[in-house]
Specification:
2 helices; mainly alpha
């Protein structure tokens, strides 16, 4: 089964005040801190004119039923 590509993990050291501000911003946008950092980086790169492909998001919801399954 081929899923979305794995994300690159790396340690990031932040000033505690910066981390707290990102946490507040993430909570406002209903995101995790990690997702908020990624979103902010994408926005900053877009403002600089760097083109990125849209992120591959996992499919949500219930998977479709098998066409070979029972039809009751």
């Amino acid at each position: 089964m081929s899923g979305p590509p794995q994300k690159k993990a790396f340690p990031l050291r932040l000033d505690p005040a910066l981390h707290a501000a990102i946490e507040r911003s993430a909570a406002t946008d209903l995101r995790s801190v990690n997702a908020q950092v990624e979103c902010l980086l994408r926005e900053a790169l877009a403002r600089r004119g760097v083109k990125l492909a849209d992120p591959v998001r996992p499919r949500r919801g219930r998977p479709p039923k098998d066409s070979q399954g029972d039809t009751e």
